[in-house]
Amino acid sequence: MRAAASRMKWWLIATFGLLLAVPALASAAEEFDPAEEFEVGSYIPIDLGFIDLSINKAVLYMLVSSAIIILFGVFVVRGGLKMKPNKAQNVLEISYEFAEQQIAGVTLPERVFTKWFPYLATLFLFVAVNNLISFIPLPTAPHTDTFQVVGDLGLYAATANINVTLALALMTFVAFLWEGFGTHGFVGYFKTLIPPGSSKGITPFIFVLELLSQVLRLVSLSVRLFANMLAGHLLIIMAAGFSILVGSLLGVLGIPFAVFFYVFEWVLVAGLQAFIFALLSGIYIGYAAQSEH
Amino acid sequence: MALEGNIVDASKALTLGLATGLGAIGPGIGVGYIFGKTVESVARQPELRGDLLSITFLGLALTEAITFYALLMGFVAFFLV
After folding, report:
1. Is the pTM for the entire model greater than 0.90?
2. What is the CATH number of domain B7-79?
3. Out of B54, B58, B68, closest to residue A228 by CB
């Protein structure tokens, strides 16, 4: 039993390695551009002049992840919740408890818990599912006219797009400003930026620094998720196609590194970055909602 | 002896390498420090392991993000200039 399980594990690793090598061999005929993964051509162009609402690759992946979350939740609950949970209900319960206790329970004060817990849980699930499905090769390259079933398989993370992460970070920004202005009043919120007991001379500097750090929360929140996903995918693709980039056959030594990095990213970084995004949002909102008096 | 070659491509490659390397120094030290302190604390009070672990991962992600700021600028210089 043990020998069979470990043999299957090695077969799986070998298959993964081979799968990662296939795109490198296949694109030997054309240009190998690692940044090509991040082109979001539009499938259904909806251009309204001042705003571009076309359905492109990022929108498609976001729709797919939303559909996964919604349909999973609806169908597991509709099947009847049992006292002894089956596997699907277990997954639902674990993700709900995780969001309730580890994210919202740690960061939000009691007063605003029911108000902001759905937002944090949705944020966590949305970012987590988007990160996780980004490692499944799908035929969604936009430079082909239709979806080819056997064609250009590619990885893509919707959260590797700065527009997506910036939109999510903007929602958190508005949320914690809303809570801050609601709890302290408009002028009172800026008064909380000044720590008590600071001398008259240094207060303007501290105020400017605190204001800057509050605005920089938006930048750091979005760039953290964006850069993590972007760098992860780029490193995997560049390592897998290393023999093409270097131009010699010795570059196939990059493939084990690509496999290791792929497993590392999928298992650890995808979920961790979602958890961090939701946790930091909770910390900002919870901190703003605390009335210090 | 004059050097041949495209100086733009050379500087792009140099920028990417420098950005990645230099940007990994500080966070490397930081992440090691975080986990070292965690090991120390768990050795002192093993019953706090769960709570300490979640704070550790929070610190890990915040520190790790700083490597990516530098790596991002390297990518911008490499692919977008």
Report:
1. no
2. 1.20.20.10
3. B68
